[in-house]
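Annotated sample (chain length 115).
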Amino acid sequence: MVKSRTLKENKDFRRVYYRGKSEASPSLVTYAAPSRLPYVRVGITSGKKIGGAVERNRARRVIRAAFALYEAEIEGCWDIVFVARTRTTEVKMQEVARQMEAQLKKLGLLSEKSN
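Output written by the structure step:
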């Protein structure tokens, strides 16, 4: 099982936002930038527009669970940031996972024939 690491520093998030590519859907935005590190780093953000702490935590939990399905299939070394949207708290994890898979394929992180 491949284990990704957590993106923690604000400068790393900003680098991914400004230098990376992005894909958006109604419940999730994905940013990805190549990394020089030999592993994948993942960051998840959810702003105050989403709701209270309970809703923000649920959104992050749903995104984390969806990413766990595709974590081992990511090819290469990337820094990835997932941004929760208001609809993230309203949809099921399977819907977020479906949108995440499509976004990761468009960004070139997953091969087209996976799943």
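Annotation: The first helix runs from residue 10 to 19.
Annotation: The mean pLDDT is 91.
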